Amino acid sequence: MSKEILVTGAFGQIGSELVPALQKQHGVDHVVALGHRNIPSDFQGKIEKADTTDKSTVEGIIKKHSINTIYHLVSLLSARGEENPNLTWDVNTKGLKDILDLALLYQAQVFWPSSIAAFGPTTPRDSTPQKTILEPTTMYGVTKVEGENLCRYYFVRYGLDVRSVRYPGLISWKAEPGGGTTDYAVAIFYEGLQRGEYTFFVRPDTTLPMMYMDDAVKGTMNLMNAGIDLEARRNRKDWDSYNLGAISFEAQELEQEVKKHIPDIKVSYEPDSRQVIADSWPQSFDDSVARKEWGWQHDFDLPRMTKEMVKNLRRKFDQH
Known about the structure:
The protein is globular. It has helices at 15-26, 55-64, 78-83, 85-106, 139-158, 184-195, 213-225, 230-235, 251-259, 274-279, 288-294, 302-316, and strands at residues 5-8, 31-35, 46-49, 69-72, 109-111, 114-115, 162-163, 165-167, 169-171, 197-200, 207-212, 242-243, 247-250, 266-269. It is of the alpha/beta class. It has two domains: 5-168 and 212-243, 3-Layer(aba) Sandwich (Rossmann fold); 170-210 and 246-282 and 300-316, UDP-galactose 4-epimerase, domain 1, CATH 3.90.25.
């Protein structure tokens, strides 16, 4: 049976790169991109427009396209989440529960992304294990913990095939920074190339786990295609959102690497409220479970990622 795929949040940071990869693997006609706002006019493929908190409309889309696989990417991120906690709860938590209910009804496989934000200041910060203390201090983080609990419940209680990873900070040239605490690792490239300067909103020594988007897309698709013994795992009540790691670096290390490609960039540091959030998150992941159970491996280190970001953004900005 072919996969008939629905991607919510299809035009966000992850979706804008995951959708083309899914189209390439499964065929354009088998991937439906669900957007709400900011749908690009040049998108090639199937498009539906809906608010994911509108359950009846989403159900109609699932029925219309005979969807059997859902990548539920819609989420309000950390910094924006603190600006509107109520909306963040509705979008991130209620929206997920609706998707899980519909997936159960229509027997669909689900991917849902958790995040580094699920951790908190009481979590071990170095080589953070997969099973650990989850006591976040942001609404975004709270919704990720509740999302993990919901996914676990639907897997153990109903046997729903729902899979998840905890993403670190994601770095992409295709999507502009979207309100996340790790966005400095993207913004320095955009502003450095367009304005010749950048001001970090964190300290120079701030260290967080990061990942180039190509690796994130690869890991997501590999997990969804992995042959996991779901029945045995369900019998053990064993469900986790996998730690997905790649690289960790200080903000000033990123600055130094960027200057190899943009030597005239002027960089300064003015930590703001996002510093508190960054200080509550791990500095590095232990992702050994993902590497052992389904063969996860990352491809991009800091130098390679920086080179790719600059090359692709120069092309995007028509700089030669």
